[in-house]
User: Fold this.
Amino acid sequence: MVAIPDAIASAILAGVNPTFAFNSMMVGMPVAGLFTGSQYMNCALTSAMMLVMAGAVASAREVDPISLIVTFDHSGRSLPVVIGPAEIG
Assistant:
């Protein structure tokens, strides 16, 4: 319940519809709860990432903002999965 206003503010900061914040909370938090092992783990959005998304959405006017955000999200999550086991970083 505490993270809902933060998610709405992050959606506004990213330049997308704030109702997407509710969708991401309904999916993201249960998935994060399944894959974290600590009671003290906090899964939340960061303002720095929202500013990056806002810049990307503003610079790509002809692309759907949601597909752009999903593409950034998937590439950001798959890169550590590849780099980690390969011990590149």
Summary: Residues 3-86 form one domain. The chain has one domain: 3-86. Helices lie at 3-14, 19-35, 47-59, 65-86.
